[in-house]
User: Fold Thioredoxin family protein from Sulfurimonas lithotrophica.
Amino acid sequence: MQTIENIQKTIQENLAVMVYFSAPTCNVCHALKPKLLEALDANFSDFKVESVDISVEEDIAPHFGVYSIPTVLIFLDGKEFLRKSRHMSVDEVIREIKRPYEIMTS
Assistant:
């Protein structure tokens, strides 16, 4: 079971973190997640991924200001860098992360 504390610990202890908010009833969430994970794997070596099922962990999404799904939050060096909700393409997410990630890891 996820907790706000666990997610915040992951964000603080890792250079690059994606928090993925979804729910079992969200078809877009299920289609998008494997594509995003595959793209992160292919492009970035140290991305840590936390998945939050908002139907189970109901307090986490509001804590992060997430009110629609799917939502992706990208944290770089402990700070929120990117927030995408609902309509997003995998390419767009990867493109926005690439340059700052490369600068941080070079």
Q: What stands out?
A: The domain at 4-105 is CATH 3.40.30.10 (Glutaredoxin). The mean pLDDT is 94.
